Amino acid sequence: MMKTSVRASRMEPSATLAVVNKAKALKYEGKPVISFGAGEPDFDSPAAAASCAERAIKEGKTHYTQSNGILELREAVASYYSDRFGLDYPADQVIIGPGAKPLIYGSLASLVDPEDEVLVFSPAWVSYVEQIRLLDGRASIVDTVTTGNVPLASKVAEAVTPRTVGMLINTPNNPTGAVYGEETLREIAEIALEHDLWIIYDEIYERLVYGNSTHLNIATLVPEVADRTIQINGVSKAFAMTGWRIGYALAPKWLSPKIGAIQGHLTSNACTIAQWASLGALKEAEEDVVRMRDEFARRRAIITDLLKEMPLVSFSEPQGAFYVFLNVAGALGGLFNGKKLEDDATFCEALLETEYVAAVPGTAFLAPGHIRLSYANSEAEIREGMARLKRFLGSIEV
Asked: 128 and 277 in one domain?
């Protein structure tokens, strides 16, 4: 067998994609699988996106674009950030990419050298740590489980070392649904300024916030950090356009050409038709966004009410995104069909194999003893899936 790189050998595959793939394989076999694994809305993409894409095809707009994206979409993103957050970015500081994930990687690749440390607040999205590792950097983990899934400033400050160069902030948070408040963001911004750290601000779920919670942009709150902050966003979640694969980054003038150059070598440009579809969505699909957000809020109420009735589990009420991060520690060590549930991975395996309910182990998010449930499913699937989960929990001998 040929040798693979150390970089490839130490990388862990995406746990969310692994769950989705296994669930799809069982479904292909005819099993009645209900998957709460993928972070993917079940709505159709907005009609405005489809019509704009169709028009682009008919008009022959099917060739390469600038590596940073079509000017019309970059201008629309800049206008959105100006209207929504009061942040002024010229179009040449906007980079359109094939999803938010490659733009986070491009940002990290522009900023991280070997052995550099990047602060990551856990529970954290599965790809953050792996992308840092791919660049031979080190993720410095700041746990938030014991502080209500929101980082405590004193813990963040303690984690900073001479090798720390930046931090990744994700709010609304995947997997917990936590929304960081004004005080938390101000304190984190002050730490970044004091220690000369950059910030990657992943706000891909910023339109999906519920109840009395409000999403805030850190650069709006503390303008001094704007020149050290990379905004990460896209159409996948709020616009139900996951498969179109369009994300956008808004970066300081000193950094945006670097991110763009890296993207140019990796992908040339994001899919041209998908860019035009995203332009249609940003300009004409606001009603769709509001409608979907309201439906997610309704589903959130349904799933949390059902979970409150279940034994052996607990959770913090999610305020954003479309996930519940469930603490299953009370079930671990118990017996199910004579088999010991050693950890969250074996819990998820047993749940999928017996009740055909797919969930993602919390270990993938740096939080053992938990599982992530997405409520980006229909009400019928949520009710049936939660009935199966309750039955599963009731069968565990503890």
From this structure: yes
